[in-house]
Amino acid sequence: MIISGKELSAKLKADMAAEVAAFPAKYGRVPHLAVILVGEDPGSVSYVTGKAKASAEVGIRNTTIRKPAEITEEELLGIIAELNADDEVDGILVQLPLPKHIDEDRVIAAIDRAKDVDGFHPQNVAALWQKQPCTLPCTPKGIIKLLRAAGVEIEGRNAVVVGRSNIVGLPVSKLLLDANATVTITHSRTRDLGAVTRGADILVVAIGRPKFVTADMVREGAVVIDVGVNRDPDTGRLCGDVDFAGVSERASVITPVPGGVGPMTICCLMENTIECFLRRMAH
Ligand code: GUN
User: Fold this and answer.
1) pTM (2 decimals)?
2) Which of 104, 163, 262, 278 has its CB 3.0 to 4.6 Å from that of 169, i.e. a possible disulfide?
């Protein structure tokens, strides 16, 4: 079975659009998401465009601020301070990665925690690991929604996560753990990775290397979630971290690239923006 994140996210976005349509009468305005893009990395430009498009579909106001890669850290922090102070901004997202001369951690920490729609602020990260209410990072949240929608049982299963990034690997591991999976986190230094991944009932791959996971690394009947977005070096087309052609023969459930995790990430960003808006309206 191929799980379509595209279909599930379309349904969820339609539900959110209906919810948001009632906001002007109730609250006097719609949620407002501010996205900051620094530089012109093609991947980042395409993500930011996707976020603006989804915002329009859901009825969320979107302001995308584009700045040249040469922007100083102080200037960027100044923009964030303005957005923090702006009562009509509910969510702030700084597209990552940032140019090397900018301290990413400092920028993330500068965002008002209540407007941190990415769930990357240190206080949100701490809250996640302490099982306190928090904004969940979009990609991990989207992955759990996909698994639930596909009817995949998580409790008691062996989940193996390939990759340990702050954006995906670590938080998705925590969400799987909270769902009572037995979780193994693997990375570039893991010895005999194939032996570990072959033990996975649920395999989440977020390593950022095209077609890195091959059929021999996957147990027959496993559930495979491919978070990768890469260019296939052979064809130049978009491809995941999983060799779909081979692995889909062995997996019971698999996500495609594109059309799998990617749309769910954006969908969860919309959900997080609405959550931040509603929390602010309640205050
Ligand atoms: N770059 C890759 N994924 C993400 C994400 O989820 N949020 C932000 N802000 N940048 C990213």
Assistant:
1) 0.98
2) 163
